[in-house]
Amino acid sequence: MGKGRLEAFSDGVIAIIITIMVLELKVPHGDDLAALVPLIPVFLSYVLSFVFIGVYWNNHHHLLQAIRYVNGRILWANLHLLFWLSLIPFVTAWMGENHLAAVPVALYGTVLLFAAIAYFILTRTLISHHGEDSTLGIALGEDLKGKISIVFYVLAILLAFVNSWIACAIYVLVAAMWFIPDRRIEKTLTQ
């Protein structure tokens, strides 16, 4: 079957996720800049999550540009990814509202970890369907960046109980690693 419905559905779900996140930003009580200070952790959590959702949307788009068809396994793998992404607004709000406390920061990382695993499963399912010698299979290869991300998430989850700021710094590092779209796919598509 074609990939059009998968793309449209995924784009819609991701748009809703972003909308839910922005609705969690509450207007402060007060009319001066000091009223914004307590909202700094909430806003920083939102920015980080917005970047992550943007990274997933961008890289998901690139994945789907490298394939032609989907099957039932791919649809389920994609839904698995969307499930974990749909939890990001909840953990973002909890982390921000609790000023980056250890447990919310660790749970945030756990959701990011499972989203990364789901993305990895989606890529492997796509490659399985299209072949190791497909455009996507060639472009991703061993997917070292995906594997490194998973290791960083596990490390950050554990470090959240030592220092939540270090864990958040690792989340920022992973987001920065993925911020630029996967050039491997772009290079392979243009060749």
TrEMBL record:
InterPro entries: TMEM175-like (IPR010617). Keywords: Ion channel, Ion transport, Membrane, Potassium, Potassium channel, Potassium transport, Transmembrane, Transmembrane helix, Transport. One of its GO terms (cellular component) is membrane. The chain crosses the membrane at residues 12-29, 35-57, 77-95, 101-122, 150-180. It catalyses: K(+)(in) = K(+)(out). Signal peptide: none annotated. Pfam families: TMEM175. GO terms for molecular function: potassium channel activity; proton channel activity. It is a multi-pass membrane protein. It is found in: Membrane. Belongs to the TMEM175 family. This is Integral membrane protein. It comes from Richelia sinica FACHB-800.
